[in-house]
Design goal:
Blueprint: H1 2-23, H2 32-39, H3 66-72, E1 80-90, E2 93-101, E3 113-117, E4 138-145, E5 166-168, E6 175-179, E7 182-185, E8 199-202, H4 203-214
Parallel strand pairs: 3-5
Antiparallel strand pairs: 1-2, 1-4, 2-3, 4-5, 4-6, 6-7, 7-8
């Protein structure tokens, strides 16, 4: 009887070790060469800082990952990198409560709560904010000022954005999820096989990469 108990206990202990090993190895280890490549990307400095409307019909464009987008907009005074909590949703936008300004240039806001608009299915924005995000979820977002409706647009075209709102970027992933000490999203360029994969990295590694990009 005692032998069987010891054997069963040993087996359970080994199973527990296996479970712990798998659960602790969730973070993707980014090769230093990729980090250096992203950090060395030149900012797109020859474009206006003025807010501009996205291409209303969508279209083809070179698609950048989240970290590539941070690098390519780091010199732009009206491109903002923020950490925020979801407090509500409406149509293709989210209400965000600002938690931290990661780039240090976000405009002062009386209550630090604002609307961020994503893709409405007819623009060249990538991020759909109307699906997949829960209230109180923590997000890290790369955003720009939104523009209001223009008088020359089709009156049937749904456009809810107003001056003072914000929008995700065009042609790049602009939203990643922060859960505990892990950041998940389309953070990196395509892999060598040409596939773009969602990755999870530690918040510590994420902050280190952001600091290297913005320095």
């Amino acid at each position: 009887m005692n032998i069987k108990i010891i054997k069963a206990t040993t087996n359970c202990f080994l199973c527990l070790l296996v479970i712990i090993a798998f659960s602790c190895d969730d973070n993707y280890d980014i090769p230093s060469s990729i980090i250096d490549e992203i950090a060395s990307l030149e900012c797109i400095a020859n474009t206006s800082d003025a807010p501009s409307r996205p291409s209303l019909g969508g279209g083809d464009c070179e698609l950048y990952s989240f970290l590539e987008g941070v690098a390519k907009t780091k010199c732009k005074s009206n491109r903002f990198l923020i950490k925020g909590r979801v407090t509500g949703a409406y149509e293709y936008g989210l209400t965000i409560k600002l938690i931290e300004d990661l780039k240090g240039n976000f405009p002062e806001n009386n209550n630090n709560t604002f609307t961020v608009w994503g893709s409405n299915g007819r623009t060249d924005r990538v991020d759909r904010l109307d699906i997949g995000y829960d209230e109180q979820e923590m997000l890290i977002m790369l955003v720009m000022p939104a523009v209001g409706r223009s008088e020359d647009w089709d009156p049937d075209y749904i456009w809810l954005e107003q001056s003072g709102d914000y929008a995700t970027m065009t042609c790049q992933f602009s939203v990643v999820v922060l859960q505990g000490d892990q950041v998940t999203g389309y953070l990196l360029p395509r892999d060598n096989d040409g596939v773009r994969r969602e990755r999870t990295i530690s918040l510590k590694d994420f902050n280190n990469i952001i600091n290297k990009i913005l320095k």
